[in-house]
């Protein structure tokens, strides 16, 4: 796929320069200074460098990017060097190459599966075209620290008193089990089975760990 044809408007807006990591001096907080051990310039990553590459490249192919060490950065060697990287926009990076803000206000156990849009940021060692922070739609998947093993043990040992339901946050059902002695044992067995097959989870919609 030709990225130039896909992002023709972007090229018109930005010209031939596709990557300019930052125009602020805030990067100095994350980059080497005279008070620190001085590294080689060629090993620096974002936000200490700026890498330029025209967007008229073929997606997936490897190209040389010309990288420059930003002003006020202290390092050894040439402050201009080449780095080989794939031609792709930052939003096209693999999931292990960027980190996304996780949300804990959705139901991870919902059927059909729930998705939400969040901000993702490319890892510092990745070179890509476009903005390094972008929106992505990801599956709702979070945990509050509830352990499946603990819930199952409670269901098998103290399920008649509703301990498993209380642990999972199902307070109303827990009270019902407590005063009905686990539904005379039937409710206890049913809950133990549902927890065992992961059908019954935490009340807040999170996943087991």
UniProtKB/TrEMBL annotation:
It is found in: Membrane. GO terms for cellular component: membrane. The chain crosses the membrane at residues 141-163, 175-197. Keywords: Glycoprotein, Membrane, Signal, Transmembrane, Transmembrane helix. Residues 148-192 form the TM2 domain. The keyword Glycoprotein applies. Pfam families: TM2. It is a multi-pass membrane protein. Belongs to the TM2 family. PANTHER family: BETA-AMYLOID BINDING PROTEIN-RELATED (PTHR21016), TM2 DOMAIN-CONTAINING PROTEIN 3 (PTHR21016:SF7). This is TM2 domain-containing protein almondex. It comes from Papilio machaon.
């Amino acid at each position: 796929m030709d990225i130039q044809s896909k992002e023709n408007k972007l090229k018109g807006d930005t010209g031939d320069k596709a990557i300019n990591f930052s125009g602020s001096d805030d990067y100095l907080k994350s980059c080497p200074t005279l008070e620190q051990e001085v590294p080689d310039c060629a090993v620096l990553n974002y936000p200490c460098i700026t890498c330029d590459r025209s967007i008229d490249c073929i997606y997936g192919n490897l190209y040389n990017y010309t990288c420059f060490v930003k002003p006020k950065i202290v390092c050894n060697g040439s402050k201009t060097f080449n780095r080989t990287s794939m031609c792709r926009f930052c939003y096209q990076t693999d999931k292990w190459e960027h980190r996304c803000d996780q949300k804990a206000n959705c139901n991870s156990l919902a059927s059909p599966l729930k998705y939400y849009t969040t901000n993702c940021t490319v890892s510092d060692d990745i070179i890509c075209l476009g903005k390094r922070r972008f929106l992505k739609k990801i599956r709702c998947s979070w945990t509050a620290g509830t352990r499946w093993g603990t819930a199952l043990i409670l269901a098998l040992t103290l399920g008649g008193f509703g301990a498993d339901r209380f642990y999972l946050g199902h307070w109303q059902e827990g009270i019902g089990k407590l005063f009905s002695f686990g539904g005379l044992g039937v409710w206890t067995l049913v809950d133990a089975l549902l927890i065992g097959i992961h059908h019954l989870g935490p009340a807040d919609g999170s996943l087991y760990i």
